[in-house]
Batch of 2 targets.
Target 1
Amino acid sequence: MKVGMISEPGKLVLYLELEEDDRPAPTDKYQIGKRIITTIFPEDFDPEDIHPDLLGLSCILICEPFIGTRITLPKPVSKHFYEGHKKVTSRYTIANVDEKLKPRKIDSDYVPGLAFSGGVDSTAALSVMPHNTVPVFLDRPLNGRSMYNKDAAYNSCNEVSRLGYNMNIIQCDLEYARKPVGFPVDVANSVPAILMADYLRLDSIAFGTIMESSYGLGHKNYRDYPNGNHYTHLGGMFESAGIPFNLPVAGISEIGTSIIVEKSPIGFIAQSCMRGIWKSPCQNCWKCFRKLILDAAIEDENMDNDTITRLFNNKEAMRFVSGIPIKHENVLTWATNKLKIDNELFSLLKKRVRGDTHSFPWMNKWFPDSEIVLHEKYGDEIKHNIARYLETMTEEECEYLREWSMEDMINSEQTALDRDNLVSNMKDHIKSHQ
Amino acid sequence: MGDDSSIGFGRLDDAGSAEDKFRRELVRIRKSASFRVGVHIITAVERPWRLILLPFSLPWLIFSIGLERLGKKAIPEFEQPRFDADKNRKSVIMFPTNGVGFGHFTRLLSIARRIKKLDEDIEVIFFTTMPTLHLLKREGIPAYHLPGRKKFNDMPAKTWNKIVEENIANVFAVHKPSMFIFDGAFPYRGMLNSIQGRDEIKKVWLRRGTFKKGSTKIPVDSINHFDYIITPKDSLELEEHDMEFTSAVVKCDPILYLDEIELRPKEDLRNRLGIPHDAIVCYLQLGAGQINDIESDISICLSELERHENVYVVLGESMLGSRLPSIGGRVRVLTDYPNSMDFNAFDFTIMAAGYNSYHEAIRFSVPTISIPNMNTGMDDQLARVEVAEEAGAMIVLREVSKRRVQAVIERILDESVRDSMIKASEKLHRPNGANQMAKWIIDEI
């Protein structure tokens, strides 16, 4: 893979050029898409000033799934980054190194950055981060038909800015480098922040990565995240480029981030639904389905019949609940267990997600092992802030998490029966309310 | 003009003064509607051919007089007395009106005290409707006071304007000024009458903002009574005037009462008010009289500030408003002039976005949560503070709710946030326009 660049103040264009041994379709699920990636910056920002290691890291995050055995970056990187990358990457190497280039320097007054989306998780992250955190929103330009509505995200960013944060909205079309559209690597949403790290004086980049994505909660088995591939490989590369990871909510489940957003003074800026407009979620997507149930459980409020009728009249939710395990099933287990609702569909859902038998009282608490993935400079402050909103898991509760496994449930015939029962009833419900 | 310091005061019983008084009376009579209508009819009688046109010309004259009264049409000029330009003294008469607060008064006082420092031979006299004359005494500035019309029960505007005209004329007669400076949004007719035809005096109108057609109710002919219009800059770039007038426009930077060097040391106010030196001190000034209303902006701010144990609040009380109730606890009240004298003592402020408050907060780099008053007519407070918000120097609350106030207070209590706001403020610093204008005035007289 060769990456070239053309720039002018306020604009960077990256060209991806495939080489013979590259992988245009790494899996059957996706392939390479657009090969010209454009990022629009503030006019006083000259992309020529980007440190080659930061530029190199950004190119890697855009191209990594498609790289064969080597990548030639727009500018040669420092030996420090080259070595650091090599240490955590075996599949491919960086082709161009400048032995004389000094690694990126971080001054003591640099501030933390955050890849911000306006959703619940990144708002929770912002709530527990230091007040001088600089949020950066990757603004994907919309092409053709898309269900993604940017109204809520823009309003959310606007509110953040009005609270005095140095909010940055940076237009970048890197999600089109992949077909279907999406981030080639999950942390590629931080590319604008990485590119602007010196301009914004950032010493680290935080993400709203929650416990479900880090430690595997709600997935088949617990994952030892700090020693896993994601953290060592990507975290290692970020570290070598001089912009280390900071994962303030990695030890917090979706339940915990929702509680934080509920209690935090800045929580009102969050909106999880990406299809509805500001303060008016679509109520028709999987996220809205989950959020409605979770919020009711957090606020300890039961739902009336009308709300339940609307809740289950959701085709996308029906598709999701037919999976085993259901995406973020743990959240539904915790929430349905707390709610006492006399409704057939709700009872079927509760049975399917085991809310009738499992309470997971530790799931709304902070997992202290995640301290290791906090940036050292901000660790104490983040822990202090988390403690304002959430309790910390006891050692016994930590052990429950470490032993997390859904295998028995996944392999159980009863689960499949419960699923079929729920889906068929939900189908009838949707049909009767069309 | 005015370079002979040996010229003494004039006397009210001078022949010239008496003559001036009669001439002004004559001009008033000639300007009156009854005189003009009468003259019109008499002229028609004297020249019978005009009688034919009288059914049209008379209503037109009455209509024109009506437009003049509404300020939509210029009043015809009448012969004015001529004064001897060689007899002016190095004297400046300043006329600040009383607006909602201290704006006009403070602006002129800021310039006046600098003129006194730069050239002590220049006499500065205030003629004002503001009641706060003790503030002038402190600066050694003599003043004539005339209460505003609304201080008198049902006094007709005509009567009050006549008092203004006579009083200013008397002040002119005695002080023989080289310059007259008015600072106010609306020029009183009595004042305009008194300065009309006084070519030996440089007449200046110090006024924020630009003259826009249709957006101001000032009489169309009033601007031309002045030789100069001084326009202090604001945070936003000034728009150009779109009304036609002959006066020259002079622009200056924002006019502030104090220079940084005049601010009291940080410990001074803390010692006086019994505030620990290590406390975080917030200066809160959002208008009085609403503290007992728990839904009011000031109450929400106070209750959110109270949650933080190391925070002390200094409530700014205006000398013009009603007295603030006693609150106790970690809340203190400050009634000084100007309260910005103690800005070194504050770690941050929560204030509205009036011209003076805004520019003082920026000039003295005090991190500020601004709650702009959205009901101030032509003074666009929101637009003003948005400049500082964009630069990262202020946090602007467009909507006050417990949660928002809690969020911004938590942020501003973080020292690193305040530090970055201070740095951002420094980038917005401008020279003090009061120094610029004091030098300009000295040069002009």
Target 2
Amino acid sequence: MENSQFFVSLTLILITFGIYIGIAIYNKARQTSDFYVASRGVPPVFNGMAIGADWMSAASFIGMAGTVMLLGYDGLAYIMGWTGGYLLLTFLLAPQLRKYGRYTVPEFIGDRYGSHTARVIAAICTIIISFTYSVGQLSGSGVVIGRLLEVDARIGTLIGVVLIAFYAAFGGMKGITWTQVAQYIILITAYLIPVIFMSLQITNNPLPWLSYGQVVSELGELDRQLGLSEYFAPFENGTRWQFLALMFTLMAGTAGLPHVIVRFYTVSTMKAARWSGAWALLFIGLLYLSAPAYAAFSRFILMTNVVGQPIDDLPAWTETWLNTNLLQIADTNNDGILQWSEIMISNDIVVMATPEIANLGVFVIGLMAAGAMAAALSTAGGLMIAISSSFAHDIYYRVLRPNATDSNRLAVGRITIVGATVLAGIIALDPPGAITQIVAWAFALASGTFFPALLLGVWWRRANGPGVIAGMLVGLIVTLSYIFAVRFGGFSIAGIIDTGAGVFGAASAIFTIVVVSLLTKTPSQEVQDEVKDLRYPEQMTYKNGDVWMK
Amino acid sequence: MKKIDKSVADAYYREKNKYILLFLSIWFVVSFGVVLFADSLQFEVPILGFPFHYFMGAQGSIVTFIILLFINAKVSDRIDQKYGIDEGANEQISYGKTVDH
């Protein structure tokens, strides 16, 4: 049994990897422009899927359902935050950035604000944010590979490093776009099959989205009987303000994440950018709508099938997880029966253990492994492209070696990917925090730096270079200080903890950009015209106070 | 290339913004608005069986977000059409327009 599971998981992972690598080789990038933005010819539906794969990381795939299960209503801040940000992005930024037409986010900031310093700060921010995020991905993929191939998590991390470095460096963005379409299909299939079976088993309804509402209400009833606060009771694990701050941080961070924004450069027009955003959220929504169902079903099974059983006679699936210490039980009152309060569950096991809980067999477990790997690798691949373009294009080419040749820049880009992946892998061997926590810091940093800089850059033509330099630095410092003050100084405002830090970062950055811009020189007429030009579709051009139609 | 009357260009911009403002207000109400008043919105949703605040957090808001994005894409297309914008021309103009320094 143990062995057959190992071979099925391994075979499925290898087959899916074969598909990704095959696609990457088939689309091997040749020109610089292909490497970074895929020739702008990707149709919106497929671009939506690629954004979905890029977006849904190891944290979403493995961790989110467990987070919702443990935090109850308060965990829904993650669900709303990571979906609602797409509205800010698609309404306020993506089409305009597409019309402005640059390769990278730092390129936009540097040209729009007419400042080399701003470009370099933006490039460094991109590297910090994407790097932080990819550490979380690599440690996630290490856990998955380790658990499913039954090797040490560190070896799992190393396997992940080699794979990411290989196809990100050789495929570039074009390879990655189509690879990510394949990854999306695999990861969503892997995510939905177990939850559909669980729904059938518990409620006799194959549609978990319609059936788990009843289960949520029953959970509340069970909690009442046990004298606990109800599963769905709001603000039990943090204040109302923490919920709102976290939700804002995740939304604004979404709109400011460089590796997501760059996706909107791969479409042909502003119209295609709007449709890509819509399709992306539809595809992403499938997973986010299912996560709370996972949470409810798993908790229901735990409360009804596991709790109340004699400790010596628990279901067979608990044993493997007890061995990993991700599930712990202790008979604190020595009555030989397991009580709810005697279980300790790590949020990372909820999704991974589901196929075993629901008895779905080796094939589905193998599929879950392949899906989780797809989630971790696709996000890490996108992040690595963002890091490499910031370094090779925005720093090396624009600042250090303005006369570097195309092939020279490609080489630097590839070396950056390999270097960054290895470095992130080394840090991931001994991660500085839980996966979701690391990911939340990346979002807080993005909402404190890029979100204000891009929002005002597109919508306020008076915003200028000194303003954005000061604003991004203040946002970065405020966000980082708040995270450190909460984690090491026990400091907090209105109960808002480190994961909600982005709200202070964004507010202070916006305030700084506005004040400093107003105190310094008005941007040139040319820059102001360029900003006004973003109000109109491609066919209309704004010039010297008039709008022209081609 | 022909010049467009200032008032027409402004009308285009205003019309687009009017909808964005409307969509973002709905976005705000279904997410931040419901969370703000979560404690007093715990009545049960018919058929599905959720308490309302939980339903909005787990499903209602997300489905609203998706619908808003598709409506936005559709409405924007219609506004473009009304002002005589041709997507084929847009593609041609933006193709290769990217500034590569």
